[in-house]
Amino acid sequence: MAPAKKISISEDELVSKLKSQDTTAVRTLYEMYSGALMGIISRIIPQTELAEDLLQETFVKIWHSAASYDSSKGRLFTWMMNIARNLSIDKVRSRDFRNAVKNQDIENNVDFIDSQKEITFNADLLGIKEMVNSLKPEYRTVLDMVYFKGYTHVEAAEELNLPLGTVKTRIRMAVGELRKYFN
Question: Mean pLDDT, to the nearest integer, of 176-181?
Fold first, then answer.
């Protein structure tokens, strides 16, 4: 791999080319300043892909706004840095960014979801079995089937030969009794 050649162009010459819409100027700007501008953007937007998009937006804005650059107000890099920083701050404040932060990508959470599937709890260690055993037998039977053996309400009703409403009522009453232990 050949070493990168050092770009030697004065700031005034670069600004002049940029204002005259010379495409080599934007390439030169990118080679000279993209790393520094990416660093500024990355401090505000830690997501690499989004930061890269903002870097591109920054150079597009620089290209379109080159005529408004005034060297008497500051250096070229300071002007470009402010564009990058302002675009990044605008992105953070935008509604779509805030909503995207609230929503998590499935790719980032697949391993977590898979690990949660493997987690089980031992009701004996939690003392729940003892609490359930202290309930009336009709409540205990329904809870045991639904919560510990995995029956659906309909399956429990069929197995116990009870109306579905009775099964649901017994579950509700049993849960109400169990709440007394926690209040």
Answer: 83
